[in-house]
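Can you give me the bound-state structure? Components:
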Amino acid sequence: MLPVDFIVQLRNLLPSDRLLTDPVDCYTYAYDNSRKIFPPAAVAFPVTAEEVQAIVALCNDHCVPLTPRGRGTGTSGGSLPEQGGVALSLERMLRVISVDPANRVIVAEPGVLNQSIQEAAKPHGFFWPPDPSSAAYSSIGGNLATSAGGPHAVKYGTTRDHVLGLRAVTGAGKFIKTGCYTTKGVVGYDLTRLLVGSEGTLAVITEATLKLTPLPQARSGLTAHYRDARSCASAIVRIMALPETPSALEFLDAGALNLIRGRFPDMVPADTGAMLMIEVDGPSRYISALSASIREACRNTGLILVEEVADAATLWLARKTLSPLLRDIAPKKINEDIVVPVSALPEFLEELAQLTSRYGIANVNFGHAGNGNIHVNLLVNPDAGDEMSRAEKCLNEMFDLVIRLNGTLSGEHGVGSEKRAYVSKEIDSTTLVLMKDIKRVFDPRNILNPGKLFPG
Amino acid sequence: MLPVDFIVQLRNLLPSDRLLTDPVDCYTYAYDNSRKIFPPAAVAFPVTAEEVQAIVALCNDHCVPLTPRGRGTGTSGGSLPEQGGVALSLERMLRVISVDPANRVIVAEPGVLNQSIQEAAKPHGFFWPPDPSSAAYSSIGGNLATSAGGPHAVKYGTTRDHVLGLRAVTGAGKFIKTGCYTTKGVVGYDLTRLLVGSEGTLAVITEATLKLTPLPQARSGLTAHYRDARSCASAIVRIMALPETPSALEFLDAGALNLIRGRFPDMVPADTGAMLMIEVDGPSRYISALSASIREACRNTGLILVEEVADAATLWLARKTLSPLLRDIAPKKINEDIVVPVSALPEFLEELAQLTSRYGIANVNFGHAGNGNIHVNLLVNPDAGDEMSRAEKCLNEMFDLVIRLNGTLSGEHGVGSEKRAYVSKEIDSTTLVLMKDIKRVFDPRNILNPGKLFPG
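Here's the bound-state model for the whole set.
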C-alpha cells in the first residue's frame, strides 16, 4: 500500500492517462517472461527525463520502491516490482532523438524498440549489433539494463560494446550524464558501462547514445549435422580457433531438434543428434572463401552433413520458436543461460548429461555456442513428487560445474531475482560488498529495483 | 618524509633489491612523458599480488600516498607521485600467465609490455588491438589504467573493448576479482570497465584477462595529399561515412608535414598542405576492393594525389617520430589529445587555426582522424614574454570549442594532473560528486594516486 500523500503527489506529477493505480490495471505490469507475478501498487508512464527525475525524487523522499521497466521481455524477473511500490514503465519514451550516420551514432530514448533502431540505421548502411531474440518487441532501455546479447554477439559483442554515453537519473533523483558522443573518450570513470547491465538498480536511463556498425555486404548460412553432442562440441572448438569468426554459431542438442521436428517435420533429418546453425558475413567477394573455411573446420568423424542453407530465414525462425515451444512440453522450465569457455564446452555438455540423468531431469540445450553461452532448460513438473527439489539440486550442481570450468552464471539474461541465490558462487564476498557500496552511492535509500541482483 | 615505523614495516615486506628509499635512486621514478617532476619518497617493486596487497594495506594503515606506475610513458602525469609517498612500480610483474588461443584469451600481469602480448598472440593468428605509439615500451597495466588507444582504434576500439576481467587490490587493501574469462557475462556490475581508464585511483590491477582478435590476412596502405587542411578534413568525413572502415586514418597538418620534411627530406612533396595516412586490412581477396573504395572517397577538389604506399613501414616510422621531433623545435609543447565528432573536424580545425593565430601561438596538429581524435600541440617558449599566458588562454578557449562541438577533452592520454583544471568543462558537478563517492568506496583514505583525475 502506498501512503496517501505519496499518491496525491504522484498524481500531481503526471496526467491521469499516464498513471495507473487500480489493481486490475496494475496487474498488467506484474509479470515478465520469468513467469513470476509481483503486482506494483502504481504504474507511472513518464515521457520526459524531467518527469522521470520528479518520480524518482518523490519515491526517494518517501522510500517507495521503484522498478524501471521496458517491455517486460526479460527472463530473470529483473523488471518485476518484487517489493511492490511503483513500476516505472519507460515504454512511452519513444523518441529517436537523432540519427547521425556521419558519426555512426543514434541517440534515442529508452522506450524505443531495438527493431526501431535497426530500421532507423539501415537506410544509412548501419545496424546496432545487440540482437536478443526479443529484438522486435524489446526496448533498448531493457537491452541496456541487461547488456543484452544474441546470436551475433560472437562476432559483434554485446550491448556494452555498442553504447557511447547515457543520460540517467540516479536513485537519489539526480541527473547524470556519462560517457561521450565520440568513439574515444577517457575523461573520468566509465559510468556508462557501470550502468549497462546494472538491471535498473543504480539509475534510470533516460537517453542513450548508441554506436552503429556498418552492415555487412553479404551473409551466408550453413548447417552442420552431427551424430551426437560430443562431436558437435568438438567442432565448435575448432571453428572458434579459426582466425575467421562466424557472425553466428548456434548449437542445438537432440532435445532442441526434437522440438523443432514437432513443429517443422521436414526440417531436420532423423539421424541428426546435434546441429550447428552457422552464419558468416562480410564482403561479397570474400563470403564463399569464409564459408569454405568454416565448412572445413566442421569436419570430424561425427559429422553427417554440412550444407549451405538456401532458406536461412526459415532456419532462424525455427531457432527462434524454441523458447516458446519449450513452454508447451513442460509445466515449468528452468531457463538458464550459463557461459563456459568455448574449449570447455565438450566437457560441460558431457557432465551436464550425467548430472541431469543422475537427477532424472529432462533437459533441452541450445544457444550461442561461439560465446560458450548455452541456454540450459530443465523441464519440470512441479506437481510430480520430488521433481522440483531434484531439479533444484541439479541446477545447483550445474552452477558449480560452470564455475569450476571458469564460466559465468549468466551470459545475457542477468541475475534479476532468478539467479540471486547463486551469485555468491561466482562473485567473492569482498567484491559483492564493493558492489553494494556502489549501489548505495547511486541509490542511498535502496529504492531502485530493491532486492535484485544481489544474494538475499 | 615517510614515518620511520612505516619504512621499517615496508622493509619487512620486500627484499632490499626491490625497495628504493635513497632520494638519488627514487629520482628515476619522479618523471614520465609529461616532463613534470615529482620524486617519490620510496619506490616498491612487488612481484606478486600478495605483495601488492601488503604494500597497499600498509599505506592505507598509515595514510601514505601510493601511486601505481607502469613504464612511465604517459603524457598526462598520471603515474607521478604528486603528493610524494610511495611509487608502486609494477614493472617486475612480468608473467604471461596463460596463452589460450582456443578461447582467444591471454592472462598476464600488469608489467608485461604491450609488445610482449603481441608476440605471445601472433603465432596463434591473433593480436591485442590497443596500439599506443609507446606499444614497444609501455606495459599493459598502463594501457589499462588509461584505456589506451592508438591508430587502429578507428576499426578495433580502445583498451576497454579488449579486456574480459581483472584481479586487483582496492585502496582499502582488499583483493577483488572483476568480470569473467568468457566473452559474455552479466553477473554483477561491470567493475572491469570501471577500473579501466581510472588511472590508478581506485585499485591496483594485478592480473588482466585480455581478449584477443584475429590478425587480418592482409594490409594495404594509402596516402592522400591535399592542398589544405579544409579539403583534407572534408575527405575524412566522407571516408568515415563509408560502410568500409579503414584500420587506420591518420591526419597530418602542414606543421606536422614540415617536421617530417626536416627529418625525411624526400618523403612529402612541397605542395602538400595536409595529408592522410590510411591503412586498410581484411581478407586478401577483398583488400584491393576496400582500398579502391577508400581512394574514391578521398577525392575532392583539394586532392593533389592519392597513392598506394609501397613502403608502409617507413611511413609509420615517420608518423611515430612526430612526438619526439616536436620536442626539438620548441622549449615546451602543450600536448593535447582532444576528440570531436568526425563530422565536426572541418569546423574544429578551422576555428583552431583562428584561435592560435589570434593568440600568436605556433601549433602542430596530427592524429587519429577516424575517431575525431586530434593531437593538438601548442609550441611555446615559456621565457618569451607573455607567450605562456597567451598559450593558456588559447588552450582554455580550445577546450570550450571542443565541448561546444560535442567532443571530449581526452581520447587516450587521460586526465592525470595535466587536464584536471578543465574536467569541469566536460563533466557536470553532480556526476563528478558521484565519481568522487565511487573513489571513496574503493579507496576510503584517498591513498591511491591522490589528487589525480578530479578538478582541484
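A couple of observations. The mean pLDDT of chain A is 95. Chain A touches chain B through 91 residues (CB under 8 Å).
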